[in-house]
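Quick one, tokens below. Sequence please?
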């Protein structure tokens, strides 16, 4: 049982709990010391991940943040520059890792709902000069987080990769929810991954494993990355216990992601009908729903608090914006429950309607 049992928890898909087949796999996992390269279950997970993404090799890491930072450390040297979107996870939500850990300069660009334009990237890549940092890396995120779950289609990834590679620049894809993108567009995940030199994806979000992420790329990239994993404290011992859940996640949890996308669409369409709520439905492409509270009588903070008091958990991400994520532990009924409560709270904040006030004034007092 988790701490928020009984709540409709829309804060993130990281709150998912492992399935019973995952728990069984963890209990029965064959293990060894992974730092010595002796854990057969980790090996199996890494082979499966590389196969699913169409890459040569994979590296099992404790978290997506560590996976991204390993990619930066592996691809770029101190004092070099990385281009990324201004609201990307690597830039804004990894505790300054590019600067603190890798000694990299970051060149944030403004995207459209988190999506960068190839020509903007072309202009941002620095020409070789004695006086400027070398552009070493372009980092993309798909689906986006703060962009609202928007997706880079493979054709756009290809265009960006061609721009970068022509300039001798490497591309890393933060594909934390890459399988959501694949299911949403109806194509294999490798169709996104093929245009990036390395890809990170998470097992512990929509795929519902309790822990872990994978970084995939060439054999050379993974072997270099393995040293950085050790440096960052990510070398694990009998890691097959958690890798077993990751195998079940990849084998059983991908095809059901469409259900989460349908629930996200239901939530978004319902929010669009509520007075005082602003949402762009074009952004809702996967399981992420971001909306703004535009009502002088209630703030996003107040709405978040009132929802929590009634058993609905959401995540406030700015002074006026709230993020919700659908996942396997939120049913259609849970989404409807959340919508009904938001509708009621927003209506109550405005008080009785004009017609209701006029009617109450015209009612004779006894």
């Amino acid at each position: 049982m988790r701490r928020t049992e009984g709540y409709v928890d829309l804060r993130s898909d990281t709150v998912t709990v492992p399935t019973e087949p995952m728990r069984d796999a963890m209990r029965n996992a064959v293990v060894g010391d992974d730092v010595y390269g002796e854990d057969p279950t980790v090996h199996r997970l890494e082979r499966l991940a590389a196969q699913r993404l169409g890459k040569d090799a994979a590296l099992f890491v404790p978290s997506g943040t560590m996976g991204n930072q390993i990619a930066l450390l592996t691809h770029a040297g101190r004092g070099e520059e990385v281009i990324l979107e201004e609201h990307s996870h690597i830039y804004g939500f990894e505790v300054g890792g590019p600067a603190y850990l890798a000694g990299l300069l970051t060149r944030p660009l403004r995207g459209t709902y988190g999506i960068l334009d190839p020509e903007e990237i072309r202009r941002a890549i620095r020409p070789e000069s004695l006086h400027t940092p070398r552009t070493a890396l372009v980092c993309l995120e798909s689906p986006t987080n703060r962009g609202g779950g928007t997706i880079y289609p493979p054709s756009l990834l290809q265009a960006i990769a061609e721009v970068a590679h022509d300039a001798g620049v490497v591309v890393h894809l933060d594909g934390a929810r890459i399988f959501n993108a694949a299911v949403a567009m109806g194509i294999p995940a490798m169709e996104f991954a093929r245009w990036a030199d390395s890809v990170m994806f998470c097992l512990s979000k929509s795929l519902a494993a309790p822990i872990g992420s994978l970084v995939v790329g060439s054999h050379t990239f993974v072997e270099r990355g393995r040293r950085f994993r050790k440096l960052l404290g990510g070398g694990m011992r009998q890691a097959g216990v958690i890798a077993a859940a990751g195998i079940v996640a990849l084998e059983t949890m991908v095809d059901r992601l469409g259900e989460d996308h349908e629930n996200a669409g239901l939530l978004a369409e319902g929010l669009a009908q509520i007075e005082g709520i602003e949402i762009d439905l074009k952004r809702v492409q996967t399981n992420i729903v971001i909306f703004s509270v535009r009502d002088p009588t209630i703030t996003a903070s107040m709405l978040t608090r009132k929802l929590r008091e009634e058993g609905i958990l959401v995540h406030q991400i700015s002074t006026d914006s709230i993020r919700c994520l659908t996942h396997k532990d939120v049913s259609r009924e849970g989404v409807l429950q959340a919508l009904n409560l938001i509708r009621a709270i927003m209506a109550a904040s405005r008080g009785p309607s004009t017609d209701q006030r006029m009617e109450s004034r015209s009612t004779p007092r006894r």
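DSSP finds 15 helices and 13 strands in the chain. The chain has two domains: 20-252, 256-350.
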